[in-house]
Amino acid sequence: MNLPEPGWPRIFSTRFVCAVTTLGPLGRKLPAPGTWGSLAGLLYFLVLFRHARWEVTVVWTALAGYGAVAFCGDAARRLGKTDPSEVILDEFVVMPLVFLGWRAGWLAALPDWAVLLTGFALFRFYDILKPLGIARLQRWPGGWGIVADDFAAALVTCATLHLGVGLWALLR
Fold first, then answer.
1. Within the chain, which residues score under 50 in pLDDT?
2. What DSSP designation does 47 have?
3. Rounded to an integer, what distance in angstroms lies between the CA atom of residue 159 and that of residue 171?
4. In b/e form, how buried is each residue of 25-40, taking b as 16+ CB within 10 angstroms?
5. Is 149 helix (H, G, I), strand (E, B) or coil?
6. Element spanning 166, H or E
7. 7-15: which pairs have CB atoms within 8 A and are 24 or more residues apart?
8. How many CB atoms lie within 10 A of CB 105?
């Protein structure tokens, strides 16, 4: 892939770029930063997207994802790392995709807490293990690789949620 990375975050200080991409102290001070970034993303979903139409969620996440590509790539360069574990903006911005259609179809039959907990756990599973070709996306250069694997993990999680609950409903 040879898509140029946005360069506009270079106008900001290293301190600011790192604060944005680590979500303040979450990525720097706590163990398992990706889990904390995902948990913050779950809260982000609940506050901003819980009642939003799927189109709003997709468009906003794409825009936020572009910002994450720019900031995460710049932070990685400044930190001298390929995909710094403390950079958790990528997990945060994609979490709303996990729950696309969460109040529709078979998922609507489950309690909210069950969908949220299962979606969170499945996302962490796919984000950590990176099966189904997700790991290849992480090899894209700079911020594209940092963010693309999380987009894929979120979409695979969403599909798994819908398929899993659908199968469960059919087998009942």
1. none
2. I
3. 18
4. ebbeeeeebbbbbbbb
5. helix
6. helix 142-171
7. 7/70, 7/74, 8/70, 9/70, 9/71, 9/73, 9/74, 9/75, 10/74, 14/78
8. 12
Q: What is the pLDDT of residues 85-123, one digit of tens each?
A: 999 999 999 999 999 988 877 777 788 999 999 999 999
C-alpha 74/C-alpha 86 separation (Å) is 13
Q: Is residue 16 a contact partner of residue 75, using CB atoms and an 8 Å limit?
A: no
Q: Using CB atoms within 10 A of its CB, is residue 6 exposed (0-12), middle (13-18) or buried (19+)?
A: middle
d(CA 145, CA 45): 23
> If you count DSSP H runs as helices and E runs as strands, how many of each does the chain have, helices first?
8, 0
CA angle 29, 82, 43 (to 5 degrees): 45
pLDDT > 70 fraction of the chain, expressed in percent and rounded: 99
Q: How many CB atoms lie within 10 A of CB 56?
A: 13
With 0-12 / 13-18 / 19 or more C-beta atoms within 10 angstroms meaning exposed / middle / buried, residue 46 is middle
pLDDT of residue 2: 72
